[in-house]
Protein: Peroxisomal membrane protein 11C
Organism: Oncorhynchus tshawytscha
Amino acid sequence: MQNSLESLVNVLESYRGRDKVIRTLCYGSQLVGGVLSEKPGLSSAQLGKSLLLFSAQLSHCRTVLRLFDDLSMLTYSQSYGLGSREEDSALRWMSVLNNLADQLYYPCEHIAWAADAKIISAKSDKWWLLSGILWGVSLLLGVFRSMRIVMLLQKKLRKSTRGDSSEGTVASRSQLRRQVQGEVLSILSSMADLSNAIHWMPPGFLWAGRFPNWLVGLMGTTSSLIGLIQMGASQAVSA
């Protein structure tokens, strides 16, 4: 119990960890609130409405916190550059375009937020739409990138399988399999988020606007839990 509490505190003390926890609570509240709001009975409906309002406040909190993400994203983009250290050219350019979409996403969202908050005189609709499009493009590129990485890792696995069965090779194959599993989880996470990104597009585009609250919450919770699992796995490896 003490170790679990300490682990949670460690997660909450880091910005990325806290964001993942808030995100999970946000979508989890939307999932439960969406289910309860559709149930008969006044008490269930009221609780569902309260959870949906709580989810909206957490979402707004994350939007405000992302005001400070531009520089960290810019630093990452600069460190990656044009991906000269990347061996695969397709992977390199998908990563570069992914970074570009992510970098442009933040100022668009900031302008939309500032317009809604009446800090600037502008219509927020087009900026929310543009940020949503950039988010969707980033997610789609992320899916393609992870699929490409899985293909490259599987090639390495096949070559390793045809090689010797020494202890080092076995350990290498085990590591490659874990990497494949991680990328598959990334694909599932991005696809769940992409389904929500399409839902928030203007009506008439695929299934835009057709998701009930509980389904938006389910997709977001799935993605958030995968993110927490991946963060825990990366911390376990680095420990």
Notes: The mean pLDDT is 91.
